[in-house]
Amino acid sequence: MNTTIILATISMICAGLASFSNKIATENQILFPTYLLITSLPYIGMVLIVQNNAKVPLAFTPFSVALGLIGGTLGCIAFYTVFTALSKGGQGSIVFPITSLQVVIAVVLSYLIFKEPITLTKLSGLGFSIIALVLLTR
């Protein structure tokens, strides 16, 4: 198995567990601002670890700052809306499949912007993902 598949699999497992931690937090009525602050601390730790091992210094270009702020803002909105949906009684078995369809957006944008190929197999996978969402949310 190649490295990118292994890394993507680790990411999938960690993202799934991180998402489920939102459900645990809402079931235990942890306040969102507290939860958001504490969940941000590992990101700071990761920056320190990665930068300590980097061969180049941190570089803040206008593009990197803008992209980081946009990505961070969108991530915060996604995090907040999932947390709020779960807090309002949303079932994880419905909320999580809906949010996992984020992959459709990424695949379409990768095709449009980076001209990555979309094969019949990939289209079938996206179609099955949408069918799975419909089945899981019933």
Number of strands: 0
Instruction: Please summarize the sheet with the most strands.
Output: none
How far is the N terminus from the C terminus?
A: 35 Å
Mean pLDDT: 93
Global outline: globular
What share of residues is helical?
over 70%
What is the count of helical runs? 6
SS class: mainly alpha
- Summarize the helix and strand pattern as letters: HHHHHH
Q: Rg from C-alpha positions?
A: 18 Å
SSE arrangement:
Blueprint: H1 3-27, H2 32-53, H3 62-87, H4 92-100, H5 102-114, H6 120-136
Helix pairs in contact: 1-3
Describe this structure in words.
- This protein has helices at 3-27, 32-53, 62-87, 92-100, 102-114, 120-136.
- The protein is globular and about 50 Å long.
- It is mainly α and 138 residues long.
- It folds into 2 domains: 3-90, no CATH class; 101-138, no CATH class.
- It has 6 helices and no strands.
Descriptive terms for the model:
138 residues; mainly alpha; 2 domains; 0% strand
Briefly say what this structure is:
The chain has six helices and no strands.
